[in-house]
Each structure stands twice: as C-alpha cells, then as structure tokens.
Amino acid sequence: MSQSPPTKQPCILIVEDDFEIARLLAATLADAGLSAEIAGDGVEMDALLRRSNFDLIVLDVMLPGEDGLSLCRRLRADLTIPIIMLTAQGEEVDRIVGLEIGADDYVTKPFSAREVTARIRALLRRASYAPAERDSLKPLRFDGWTLDPQRRQVRDPSGARVAMTTAEFDLLLVFCRNPGKVLSREQLLANTHAGLAGPIDRSVDVHVRRLRQKIEADPGEPILLKTVRLGGYMFTATVEP
Questions:
Q1: Is the pTM above the cut of 0.70?
Q2: Which residue in 83, 148, 154, 187 is deepest, having the highest Cβ count within 10 Å?
Q3: CA–CA separation, 121 vs 107, rounded Å?
Q4: Cα–chain center distance at 188
Q5: Domain boundaries, the chain
Q6: Where's it mainly located (predicted)?
Q7: Which fold has domain 11-127?
Q8: CATH topology of domain 132-235
C-alpha cells in the first residue's frame, strides 16, 4: 500500500528584534507542530520572504529601522498572508492603526506564547479550510461581485481580483451567507477570527470600514453594507450561488 505524502508543516515568520521573545515563541510553536523562522528587522524579513514561503507573519510594531506598521502596510500591498501584530501594552493607537492598514489580529506585550500560538492556529484555520469543507463550498455572487470560498478569492464586476485580509474575507463570507440579517459585532467576531482581536466594537468596525472601501461605490454612503444602530451590521445585497 502506498503511503500518503506527509502533510506540510505550517511555517510562521516571526519578525521581532528581542531574540529571547522570538526564541520562546518559536519553541512554543514547534511544540504545537508549527515551524518558525526569526527575523530581527525588515531587512531580514525581506530576505526570508524572498527565500521561503510562509503561512503567517507575527510582526512587532517596535523594530529597528523600518517599523512594524510600515512593514505591515508594505506587505499588505502585495500579499494576502495573515498578519498578527505585537504591540506595547496600552498602545491602542498602534493596534487600531495596525488593523486599519491590514493586520488580521494583534497581541499586546507582555503576552503568553501559548496565547499567541492559539491565535495563530485560529487564523490558519480560517485561511485554509479542511479539504472536505472546501469541496462543498460554491462561489457566491452579489451585484456583479463573485466570492469563491474554496479559493478564498473575491472578484469585482469587471473580473479583477480584489486583495483582502483574512479577516476581511471572513467578514464578507459571513455577510454573504446571511443577507438581510442584522448581525451583531459579537456574532461577526464569533464567526470570523474567533473573537481574538479586541476590543470587540473597535476591531469589527475597523474591518468593516476597510471592507466598505473595497466593495462600496461610495464607502462614505454605503449601500451594500449598512450600519444598524444599536444592532450591528446588515448586508443588503441579493446573494446568489
């Protein structure tokens, strides 16, 4: 009997200039069955990205040279890879800005390496469904747009692919599966990246705002994705399989 090929280990890129923190996190990831490589700054990060493929990036905000926010913005312009940002305790501005420019989640320092590992696993699950689940997912269409859950791609009415973060794609998928329903922020987080990025209201609002910038003709006057006062959000488009 032929043996199945071994399953590829997800590989995480840790961009952190504190080697002890990075080493501890890498060791915890290894114990959880995930491989990791470490970069101390943006230059080392770029070199590793040219050499290897990664499934997720853990990115510290405070780095020598180009800071984490600038790196996140640059990465998101070209890649849809999930990004978790590490921020200093109490620096809410960094966290909100990080979400605004495309991070999928953030963790405040000091943090538990096991907590970060759990967040990584949750994002990896969202970014890559199990094969059986993928096979049963068919493309959804609304207002000329096409959302393909199997390939995790979104195309606009012209057929052009629109880049989205893991969180943005998951939000749009939840909305497409629940058209015409008012969904609370808690429901949206529970069905996207497992309520990892808090506070709840701010993180969901940031991702919704970014999503509107990509699918609405006028993000300032949204038609497809409405805010429901004291309720949450409602997707008004007609969705067809």
A1: no
A2: 83
A3: 14
A4: 14
A5: 11-127, 132-235
A6: cytoplasm
A7: Rossmann fold (3.40.50)
A8: Arc Repressor Mutant, subunit A (1.10.10)
